[in-house]
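User: I'm writing a short report section on ligand binding and want a predicted complex to refer to. Could you take this sequence and 3-acetylpyridine adenine dinucleotide and write out the structure as tokens? A short remark afterwards would be nice.
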Amino acid sequence: MTTKTRPGNGKREQADLDVVVVGAGFAGLYLLHRLRGMGYTAKIFESADDVGGTWYWNRYPGARCDIQSIDYSYSFDADLEAEWQWSEKYATQPEILRYIQHVADKFDLRRDIEFSTRVETAVWDEKASVWRLRTSQGDTVSCRFYVMATGCLSAPKTLDIAGADRFRGATYSTSHWPHDEVDFTGLRVAVIGTGSSGIQSIPLIAEQAAQLTVFQRTPNFSVPARNGPIPARKLSDFEAGREAFREAARWSLAGVTVPISDKGAMQVSDEERQARYERIWEAGDLIEAVTIFNDIVANPESNATFAEFVRNKIRAKVNDSDVAETLCPYDFPIGTKRLCLDSHYYETYNLPHVRLVDLRKTPITTITETGIDSSDESFEFDAIVFATGFDAMTGAIVAVNIAGREGVQLSDKWADGPKTYLGLMTAGFPNLFMITGPGSPSVLSNMMVSIEQHVDWICDGLEHLRHKSLDMIEPTETAEAGWVQYVNDFGAITLFPQANSWYMGANVPGKPRVFLPYVGGVDVYRTICNEVVDNDYLGFRCSGPGGSRVNDGIVRPVQPDVTILMQIIESLGFPPINEMSVADARTFDESMATERPPGPEVGEIVDGVLTGAAGELAYRLYRPASPGPHPIVAYFHGGGWVLGGRDSDDPACRELCAQSDAIVISCDYRHAPENRFPAAADDGYAAVQWIAENAAALDGIPRQLAVAGWSAGGNIAAVVCQLARDAGGPEINAQLLITPVTDSDLSRDSYVDNADGYVLTADLMRWCWNHYADPADWQNPKAAPLRADNLANLPPALVVTCEFDPLRDEGVAYAEAMAAAGVPVRHLPCRGQIHTSIMAVDMVISSAAARAEMANWLRQGFRASVAA
Ligand code: N01
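Assistant: Sure. The structure tokens for the complex follow:
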């Protein structure tokens, strides 16, 4: 193929094609159709000799989709939808392939597909601003845009079993099954691998084989598919309004409309939990299985109940109890490896000619000319079936030698794990798109919905460029790093990272262990992708004859579970607290405290009364379960000196007690506006004096005393340390200041940047300050401890700040000022957290590590003070 120079543009070369697409599966075909419709010249290169992608190759017996047929089909063409009828709930591979072939025929797609041709190298030519490709046929072709539509599960994992090439009998791979029918009748057959492919094929191979031996390394969870006719309800929903049905799927969690529970598994009675599990066992739908409760893949306790339910089903189905136990998975949470859907898989092990070999007990030592040797037995076989899986999500992409700017190889850039922006593009590789790439919902969704969304997004992007006379688009490094972080953060608040799954790259030796897909759901993901566009392609740099521009930024800098918390709060539609009367604000604040998880158990909780600066004050004491005596932490609640109390911070105090192994005494203090400055500070100091004097009576360790507080409570804790220093006691070992108020300057950057939108607003802080103190007192170090002349000789401090908090900068300033005065200070900045999320025990998982660190710091501080 030749290259031409674009008329009227001496600088940029006219490419042979506007777009080259790799892969003629569902993604490539729809993309080709769209591109043609938009008037682009486009071609697909496909290594197979026909369309189909994964459904072309995976022809093993029993191969079916595990998403229901109606959902797993294109939505872009009403005629196509109307004319195609699926015959079963879960279509077989041949039927799906017929559907894809029908689509190729209907839209006359084959004429722009070069079959039996691989793209071997793709090199970005910076000067000409084109991609230069070389194919397995020796052709070269240039294109402006290059799209990898190569599928997530298309590159088979390299066989990592010794002697695999020695076997003289027939070998088969589920992922590259012969086109001619394979007949196992009368044969001794081995199957290695018990993932979805193994679990689907084993019952059918067993029907033919004289002997079937299954080599299992890791058992998997599988639920019955209950295949049959398309469920009547689903069919009628679909027929009643196809577009509405599709639109609902596009805005659903997994690209399939199933009811999503708003309850966690532990929030219902044992009977209801069991009943729900039984219901989904009958339903035969893997999306429903993991959404029957909203925390199956997030809460270990909930997960364990479902896992045990499935294990009991396995035990009930398999006659031999040892075999049943071998089939029971224990070493990963259910749902964190793709749940399998089967037809009579477990029952197959009741057949007399089927045997299960547990490779955990007797690993394969080698494959031989005639069979398989395990550590304690030699097996003879006529045929071996490898169902050993894929180099998922990245394998097919890096299989092409892709070189971006300055010749950087994509495989090198991704050596420590894939880095993408939105799973669609990667920095340094302009005009290279991936469909359902790593960092997008892809394999955690109905692929058809995700494919269509990506194709549409890419096509809209190309239109945008054309409209603006631009021809180059690429994510910025900042945007990409932010997205990679966000995808990891989302993975980290689930149980997925606990499994050695292909989602984690853990099935391929040497592959970096990184959570590959985006777990936040297709609905949230679609919102984000749209937001990027609406914000003028946030995170992208674009250039071309129409100019160049960079719109740098991070699309989701807040932790995913914090965002969910903020959305819940927003959805409640309450007016801002600072627009409420104090009485209403307190009622509201108290009502919020009743609707949350209680926090962990502690040894004992006792309410009592201590002596404040102007009378008695209530306190709540949390005692660890371990034998006393214990060090004591005097804790001051948040609430802007106006709101809050022992109840508001109760879960946080329980957790602090349980994790620090110290007594935590949550002390009341007089509230403003009834008792204005310095009442709260004076009460705080008096409370600490009282605690110090009564430490032994409280079964605390005398002189093992720390102060802690959150927000305005952090302000009181900081002030108490200064007062104690100046008054010569009591001795305080440590101060834990959690997002503390330390100053009255409301003009710092963090006040401006986070003035609104992160629950604690600048207006609310102003409301608190106004209630607490006269402006004349705002500079007083007893109100604004940062303003103290002397910050030396204060107790060692841990200052916790949150990224999206108006109080962030004053916390940082206080930490720096104390450090400059010689105080041992640790600053713990909490990325992606807001003022309230840091204390949301059992609601915000992403802040748990920070709280554990605070408790640990206290624990170590107490230990160090004992040693000293
Ligand atoms: O692959 P897998 P798969 N020695 O990786 C074992 C989709 N899919 O092709 O877990 C011994 O799940 C390996 O053991 P272990 C679906 O998303 C969908 O079955 O590594 N054993 C495991 O048991 C699915 O999740 C459908 O210890 C070895 C098995 O091989 C994904 O594709 C159908 C081994 C591989 O399981 C992948 O499924 C089919 C070794 N050296 C696939 N190496 C449907 O739509 C690997 N194993 C229904």
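A remark for your report: The first strand starts at residue 4 and ends at 5. The chain is about 35% helix and 20% strand.
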